Fold alpha-1,6-mannosyl-glycoprotein 6-beta-N-acetylglucosaminyltransferase.
Amino acid sequence: MKYENEGHRMSRILDSHQSRIVALIITFITTLLTLSVFFYLSITPSAEFEYQDAEFSINRYTDESSLHGLWGLKRPHLQLEGWKEWIGLSRPRDRAKEARDIRDLSDLFYERFPLDDKRAARGMNRPALERLAHCIETNTCGRDEEKVVLLASFHFNNAITGGTSGEDIWARSTLEALHSLNYTLLYSFGPMDTLTLYQGLQDKVKTIIWEGAELKKCLARNETNWESLENDHTPGTFQNQTAQPRFGCFRRPGFEEGIPPEKSFTFHFWSGPENPLGGEFTLSPEDYKSWNKGVGNHYLGYSLETRCKAIPLPTHKEHRGMALGKYAKYFNTSSRDWVWGKEDILRQAILDMPHSNKGEKFEMIATGGHDDGRTGAHELMYKGIRNMGGLPQDEWYQTVAASKFLLGVGRPLMSPSPYDALCLGVPFINPITWWNREEPEDWSRWITQHDALRPYGPPYVYHVQKENHEQLEEAMKAAMDNPIDRFIPPPMTVKAVRERHRKLVETDWTPSAKAAVRALWTDKGKEFPYLLH
Ligand SMILES: *[C@@H]1O[C@H](CO)[C@@H](O)[C@H](O)[C@H]1NC(C)=O
Ligand SMILES: *[C@@H]1O[C@H](CO)[C@@H](O)[C@H](O)[C@H]1NC(C)=O
Ligand SMILES: *[C@@H]1O[C@H](CO)[C@@H](O)[C@H](O)[C@H]1NC(C)=O
Ligand SMILES: *[C@@H]1O[C@H](CO)[C@@H](O)[C@H](O)[C@H]1NC(C)=O
């Protein structure tokens, strides 16, 4: 009876008009909740793209969360994009049109800046743009492939064509890092080819890495001076060929279509700022900041790990040291830069070195100088040092690796070669050219040939006071008696360098740019002549 009654009451409620409304409301709320949860799930993972720290972001990149698998969606930002389209917040991507625009850009680029033997890297833009167009068209882009980095320094071209300057070596490492991160890389040589690429790709361009002198031309370009800023290989006369010509390059009032300051970084080997936004926008190969009370440029750094590890270490070392420096001018004993005394300190030290336990006589070598045009004899750069002449890169590595130490003679400063040596298991002797007489051991105040190596000591790096015969001999002997294994300073591993490049490209630098405008311009009563986003 009771049950019947209950059932009766129940059906009465369900039948009622009121209850239908209740049911509708419940359904509505449930649906709303479900949708919110879906939407929440779809947008939260995008927070992962905020850079936290190297280790963290590496994990985030390699561990795709189970959620991604569940929805069959590969990437957080694609989920967000998909949802936005689904709920009508954004229009679906017109992939065919995007691809067409990129191919048009490619044609326009080569029309304005034809292929050029002296600028081989330019030829690499077409295949890169075609890959990008194709993967967008077919929705097959790899992770981060749609992020574009513009390489607007000739050092990137040199890196590809075998250049060996410090900047070229740095550029080679930057290319390695950016390639390993899957970014689309495009090469340019001046303001106008860089502008053409930027205008064709807009927001896809995340970062522009500039040669300082080219950035300066870009900053200066306007309607009165544009002709004087032209150069033969990246002419910008196209700006004079429209119905209403507009002349410019950097984004500024009156040229809003210009290259954004907050994405523009300068590739600069030395320690001073070289960008209108100061040190944070000036990339640097060494961590100058770390030894200058936190003041300095943006440490990007480089790695020699890959190319160095490709060289097998010799099983036998010659009983010899090698002098760093490929030009005779570095060995000029009358020059102010020469550190081993006018009085033959180095020659004496060489003569004083003991024989090896196998009885081999000690020898000091150098590689470089000019060869005599007639006889082909290598230039004598220093009496007591055998010059083997300029060596092809591979032989140079073998020669360093088979030596017992590398010795600095004062110049070149901050060369990559001591890092090569360390990575090949060869200690470096670093001359100290200035020290505090009261506290000669306080390395933070030293000036040395290679300041970035000051924090490292024996058995890797021996720091020796300029013109100090005794210290020099001691260091040479200690270096020979204490062989080392390969050594790579931790900030210079491939992995550490890759993470700093990732941070460079993934970070939105607008807040830093705004802070820099205040600190460097407006707070000093100067008007910032360019435009941030
Ligand atoms: C680069 O993209 C490929 C697929 O195109 C992917 O397998 C790889 O993990 C990506 N590398 C990085 C560092 O994201
Ligand atoms: C263009 O820049 C130059 C300085 O490089 C300046 O003297 C000139 O006034 C500028 N012209 C315009 C129209 O702003
Ligand atoms: C720029 O265009 C104007 C008008 O078409 C022309 O008179 C002038 O010669 C052009 N300048 C250059 C450098 O091409
Ligand atoms: C060596 O340096 C001195 C002093 O700077 C200079 O006068 C001289 O010309 C240099 N010698 C060579 C061969 O470069």
The mean pLDDT is 88. The two ends are 76 Å apart (CA to CA). The chain has three domains: 2-86, 95-303, 310-492.
